[in-house]
Amino acid sequence: MLIEDILYSNFTDSVDKGDLQNANKALMQSLGVIIVKDRENFVHLLNECDIDADTKMSDRQLIDLFVDNVAEDPEMMLGASILVNCYNKKSNFDGDDSLNDRYVKAGYVAICDSFSPEEQYSNAIDPVTAIAETVGKGIDLGSKGLEGRQKKKYGLQDAAIAKNQARDAMKQQVIAQREQELEVKKQREADQNKNSRTALIVVGAVVGVALLAFIAYKMKKK
Fold first, then answer.
1. Which residue in 46, 117, 118, 202 is deepest, having the highest Cβ count within 10 Å?
2. Residues 6 or more apart whose Cβ sits within 8 Å of residue 132
3. How far is CA 199 from the centre of its chain?
């Protein structure tokens, strides 16, 4: 099972349990995977939100551009949720070609809940109400989800902490993906070297047999 499938499963499970904090964490980790595996679309997300970015930027630069701007940009929040859900659709995690509208909107709510400053959050639509209105039914937040919202309401989780958590989650997956790429490259090179040595051995054996045959032929002529 691919890491992106595991992360998306963590996201949907968290949404179904009403755990917005872990839902957001899974989304940020998924974005880290996308930075490595689907870089063009991640950059496109930033560009669509009027952020100057390109694919030649470093992983860290792209992470910083997202984390430093998403709290003030609802369109980027929604775009990030759509991007993760679209990426899941392409990887055929659930065998369905269509976007899951409920999880797209729930992803937006999870990101908004984690990043919005207290004063913005207090004026925002209640996450449960938003989902109930747009999807037709609310998500049961459960005790953990309610606890997260209560902390947000009283300002105990500020924007700086949310940014650091998001940055760490994205970096974690970027590093993991880069290490995986390096291992694949090393294995490919090892296989190529092995094949080259095998080819040399075969060629050497063929040359040796031909040489012995030539010597035997010369000796017969004598």
1. 46
2. 138
3. 40
DSSP, collapsed to helix, strand or coil, labels residue 158 as coil
- Closest alpha carbon to 60 in 32, 40, 34: 32
Residues 68 and 78: their CA atoms lie apart, in Å, by: 16
> For the CA atoms of the chain, what is the radius of gyration?
26
Structure tokens at 71: 């709290």
Domain boundaries along the sequence of the chain? 3-178
Query: Are 139 and 106 in contact, with CB atoms under 8 Å apart?
Result: yes
**Residue 93 CB partners (closer than 8 Å, separation 6+):** 4, 5, 8, 9
Give dist(CA 203, CA 151) in Å, integer: 71
Q: Name the pTM for this structure.
A: 0.69
In this predicted model, what pLDDT tens digit does every residue of 29-67 receive, in sequence order?
Answer: 999 999 999 999 999 999 999 999 999 999 999 999 999
Other beta carbons less than 10 A from residue 123's beta carbon = 8
Measuring CA to CA, how many Å separate 45 from each of 36, 61, 83, 93? 14, 14, 8, 22
CA distances from 77 to 30, 105, 121, 139, 194 (A): 14, 10, 14, 19, 48
Instruction: Tell me which residue has tokens 């890491």.
Output: 3
Region of 219 please: left (phi>0), alpha (psi -120 to 50) or beta: alpha
DSSP helix, strand, coil percent of the chain (3-state; round to 5): 80, 0, 20
